[in-house]
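Bug report

Summary: structure tokens for Amine oxidase domain-containing protein differ between web form and batch submission.
Environment: batch mode, default settings.
Steps: 1) Submit the sequence below via batch. 2) Compare with the web form result.

Sequence submitted:
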Amino acid sequence: MPRIAIVGAGIAGLVAALTLQDAGLTCSLYEASDRIGGRIRSDTSTWRSGAVSEGCGEFIDADHEMMHSLIRRFGLSTLSLERGRAPRIFYFFNRYYREDELIEPLQAVAAVLQEQLQEIGPVTTYQQHTDAGWRFDHLSAYEWIERFVEGGHRSPVGRLLDIMCSGYYGLDTSEQSSLNLIYMFAPRDLARGSTSGAPQRESCRIRGGNEQLPRAIARSLPEGSIHLRHRLVAIERCGRHEVALRFVTPGGPLEVRCEHVILTLPFTILRQVDYRRADFSPLKQRAIEELGYGTVSKLFLEFDQPYWYSAGPWPLPHNGFIVTDLDIQTLWDVAYGQGVSGGLLLSYTSGSRGAAFGAPTSYGTAAESEVVRRAAASCLQQLEGIFPGISAHYTGQAALSYSTGDPHLLGSYSCWRTGQYTLFGGYEGAREGPIHFAGEHCSVAFQGDMEGAAREGVRAAQEIIEDY
């Protein structure tokens, strides 16, 4: 029986193990933390209303076919996040904007985006790119807005695109390739306000928490095949067909030898592993060391009622989704559709704002952490500008998910920086002999999504299956 190891028991590693098992191959999984699931982390106990919140991976879109297939396979049910056609709230320059106020300038931007997309082409990678693709890859998203949006960042549309692009990919737009913005917005109907990285039409979550999926997959694997608290510290090629993995474990150092290994850990973590003897190609090493990672943080505040749907100076009706140029950036109603009383509002911050929490622990509540209490107070103060009177309905409970501070993640999800599409985009998942790579950071089409992680887990497993 071949010796196969998988490093990382997030969705990519678990799906890879499941795919190998379906093909009659066994493997061992090694996970540095004390839990499975990686960036799928559901909170089912914090909220008085009984609501479930997702600390990291949240939305499953209609075209996430692999995730829907896994959900069906394990008999899980989903919760639709369809919000109808009610508009969003935009709050820029200390005033509300209705979506219909922005239709004309959004149409102008949409025309530019479509023209540029035609010139660039549908895919840009290190292997496949046009001259226009290279040019826009080396232009930051911030500069794109300054050049191609009338009024640049001084306009509401410029602010909207900047905040949504930062939120979707996780870094400040000054650090991102403008291709991120173009590929995000060009296929969408901007004139209808389809500008969000938050729930799209036909998006869903798993009822009761997304974490049920990795747990279900883990239960289907052989008992004893998952080893927690095993942190990879070194990897070495030992000839053509053997790899040595060195771990730090509660029982002391451990060396594992295998014929194939799938590395699913984020490149932010792989940078800390000694891979000098792994014989990685120069381009792979550069991708590992330089690939951008977002710094998204999620701050949840609980209210005794969804006050934002009440009558007030804000536009009504709306769908519980807010974009603002205040520090709280993007907000949505997490309790929407869960059938619970009360309200749960999420402030989704990214870039330098998302990285600024500096919390002593990556996941905490107001009951446990002064950092969370201060962050909640600041958020509430800013919310008063959008929804005057909302503070009276705050229950005092809040929670923070700060993945940038998680020592097993050190970021939210991958994001190509300026110039990285054409430098190594698409090479992140390329195998290096018996060493394979998986995770959302290896996906071109679904970078940053649970879908990307799941698909890449299957791809890496198939590479091994085809070798036998």
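Above is the batch result. After comparison, the two runs are identical; trailing whitespace caused the diff. Residues 4-40+211-291+423-466 form a domain with the FAD/NAD(P)-binding domain fold (CATH 3.50.50.60). Confidence is low (pLDDT under 50) at residues 191-197.
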